[in-house]
Amino acid sequence: MTSGPYFWTTGNAAKAYCLQWIANEVEKRGVDAPLTILDMGSGTSGNFAEFLQANPKVGYIGVEPYALACEAARKLLPQRENIRIVNDLAYDLYGRVITEPVDIVVSFSVMEHVVQRPRYLQTVYDCLKEGGTFLINYDAGHFNPNRDLKEKLKTFLSPWMARLGMEGRYQKFVPEQDFRQWVQQIGFEIVEAKSFNTQMKGLHKRIPSAHQQEHQRRWLEYEEWLNEIVTDYSDADAFLWLSRNFILRK
Length: 250
Ligand SMILES: C[S@@+](CC[C@H](N)C(=O)[O-])C[C@H]1O[C@@H](n2cnc3c(N)ncnc32)[C@H](O)[C@@H]1O
Hints:
Elements: H1 13-29, E1 35-40, H2 49-54, E2 58-63, H3 67-76, E3 83-86, E4 102-108, H4 117-127, E5 128-139, H5 149-163, H6 176-186, E6 189-196, H7 200-204, H8 212-229, E7 243-249
Parallel strand pairs: 1-2, 1-4, 2-3, 4-5
Antiparallel strand pairs: 5-7, 6-7
Bound molecules: S-adenosylmethionine (SAM).
């Protein structure tokens, strides 16, 4: 039996953690208070479909360069005027795509695919309201070029594809020191840094669907506890924790 929070999407502890953070924020502000989320690299927007259905006052702008994913997102999301999908790379959006600064920006599993990283982070900063929050996670663990031939090829070919304008397939490790330096130079305050997605992420796929909510709850609880007792992190830990997760404030 499930007790505790309901997860809109399961299978990734970092995303579940951020979505829970957003659900708490909506509850704190009051469900009738309008709030807008900008989702950088939104894919099919599957993380937000159920959440937006349940929270009609929450506005959502998804920015995604892959046209087919945009089409799928438009079919998946509720049709209403405070929800839109923009088919574009998430660079220089303020004044062009975003005209009013937003309350929350999310970037889930995108940063590791972004070619121009400081420009991407500056875009987030420009789109946020003063005091607004940026929830970002990126995968560190699945870019092990030593793992198999497919990973080796992807890591080798994707920078060349990016030069030909195919940025969406790019993949490169995000070094901790670089990330911290970029966000601090731009002016973000680092409110929190955590790591998620131990090998329990792989196990989740084996959990029968009737138990996935409960498994997600126990998994997240376990990893939140791990974060309390293991507070140091270096790039060498990237294969223990598959995702880094930051909460930043403007
Ligand atoms: C692993 S998917 C994650 C999708 C979604 N955020 C999620 O959590 O399901 C990475 C996405 O980043 C997008 N992407 C890559 N480079 C991007 C960029 N510069 N700006 C915006 N999106 C980008 C890709 O097209 C892809 O949809």
